[in-house]
Structure formats: structure tokens, C-alpha cells
UniProtKB/TrEMBL annotation:
UniProt entry tagged with the keyword Hydrolase: yes
Descriptive protein name: Putative Zn-dependent protease with MMP-like domain
CDD domains membership: MMP_ACEL2062
GO MF term (any one): peptidase activity
Record-annotated membrane-spanning stretches: none
Presence of keyword Hydrolase: yes
Gene3D superfamilies reported for this sequence: 3.30.2010.20
Superkingdom of the organism of origin: Bacteria
Biological process terms in GO annotation: proteolysis
Keywords from the named record: Hydrolase, Protease
Length: 113
């Protein structure tokens, strides 16, 4: 386990989001990305909550934003170096963004995420 300061971890998440292809950022809709610095369930690195873009209908108007949460303690618990944390944050962000686009866990694992 490695300890990463909250501010540094948040910067890692920001960097991971900034590293997404620009065309994905242009089509992400009504989703907020948050960082849970102190909680979460053991083993849960990230969580997508909402309605994937592929399942939204005209009735989706006025819905609360979807949420992607990235869990600092869970990620730090499985890493031994800051480089591992950076890579795991990147992988987790991509995985959860994949859910926003309607890609399921099985397919994400097939794709290496």
C-alpha cells in the first residue's frame, strides 16, 4: 500500500480525464466525475452510477447528472508505487467512462480495461 496525498490523487484523476481522446470528451453528456478520498468499499476502485448514453431516451431530460466516483483508498491499497497509482487511476477512469458509453464489465475486460 502506498499513501498518496488527496491533492496529488485528485490531480492524477484530472490528468487521466485530460488524457481521454478529445472526441470522447465532446460526446460525454451529463456526467460528473468525483473523487472519494476517504471511503468506498474494499476492492471497489471506481463506480459509475447513472443511465449510459446508449440507454437514454427523450424521457431523460432534466435527469440528475450521472456520477463516476474514483476511490483513492482502494486504489492506493493495491499499489506499491506512485507510478502504479497513476496507471491504476488511468485504467479506472477509462473503465468507468466506458460504462457511461454503455460498455459492460465483460467487454471492458476483453478490451483490457
Amino acid at each position: 500500500m502506498i499513501e498518496v496525498e488527496p491533492e496529488r490523487f485528485e490531480q492524477m484523476v484530472t490528468t487521466a480525464l485530460d488524457g481521454l481522446p478529445p472526441e470522447l470528451g465532446k460526446i460525454m453528456r451529463n456526467v460528473a466525475v468525483t473523487v472519494d478520498l476517504d471511503g468506498g468499499r474494499p476492492g471497489l476502485l471506481g463506480l459509475y452510477e447513472g443511465v449510459p448514453l446508449t440507454r437514454r431516451t427523450n424521457n431523460y431530460a432534466w435527469a440528475m447528472p450521472d456520477r463516476i466516483t474514483i476511490y483513492r483508498l482502494a486504489i492506493c491499497a493495491i499499489c506499491h508505487t506512485e507510478e502504479q497509482v497513476i496507471e491504476q487511476v488511468r485504467r479506472t477512469v477509462v473503465h468507468e467512462v466506458g460504462h457511461h458509453f454503455g460498455i459492460g464489465d465483460h467487454r471492458l475486460r476483453e478490451l483490457g480495461w
